[in-house]
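Internal tracking record. Fields below are filled automatically when a chain is submitted to the structure queue. Please do not edit lines marked as system-generated. If the sequence contains nonstandard residues, flag them in the REMARKS field before resubmitting.
Queue: standard
Priority: normal
Entity type: single polypeptide chain
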Amino acid sequence: MEDKVIYLSPSAQEYNIGYGDFGSEEYRMNRIADLVEKMLKNQGYTVYRNNPNEKLSQIVRESNEINPDIHVALHSNASGDGFNAQGPEIFANRPNTPGDRLANLIYNEIMQIYPDPTKGRGVLHTSSLYEIIRTNAPAVLLEVAFHDNPDDAEWIINNESQIAQAIVNGINSYFSS
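SYSTEM-GENERATED OUTPUT FOLLOWS
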């Protein structure tokens, strides 16, 4: 495989606390990113990671300086009410772009392991999420599920390895097609 470069950007939101034993969004998404990074490196990818102590503008600047083939941000969602909103969603910049293709591939893999396929929120396009619109590489922002929903928080906690593998599968599909 030709050397592919991936920039992983797990959440730096340490004060965004999930339900029960979830911990912070930063903590949980960095645990998943650790697994994704290890899997990708074992497959021969070059992987860079954000520094969670940096501001988002610094993270985007670093990604742009590295010029990776793709930029993958990992987050967990919050609705505020904690019990009604549920399911994964992923953001890309515009339809019919490499980022949109990557988003669809990762989302499809995540939905294969998410317990209720009717709760998926889909691939969404944004012109306002800074990390998506300011990153030069094809970029996605995955909201794995809702950390303030008890069922979603428990699912994330109990399925970190499977979530990481689904992300890696989506990335592999992106580069193989």
